[in-house]
Amino acid sequence: MVAIYVRISKDAQAKGLGARDQEQDCRKLAERLGWSVYRVFVDNDIRASKHSSKPRPAYLEMFQAMPDGVVQAVLCWDVYRLVRQPKELEEFLDIARAREPND
Fold first, then answer.
1. Domain of 48: which CATH number?
2. Could you list the residue range(s) of the whole structural domain that residue 74 is in?
3. pTM, two decimal places
């Protein structure tokens, strides 16, 4: 199953339009790939810069589901929507490598 992660830094009108647009694009990609969407994780109006310390609850919940195999792939509109720092990307790669079949 694939998870979709969307995040928008500022949503002054609290309408979630940017997050909605990201989700729609990711759903189209999942459909083209023939992947089933398990869940959409949304962090709306939350900055993800390296200077931000505000927690991203949906990101953390999704990340915790990855090692268990519930989430086998993650789609996001762009990698900068997903991670704050290269270290976070490395954590994703570590989980992916751990789930690869041994040759």
1. 3.40.50.1390
2. 2-99
3. 0.80
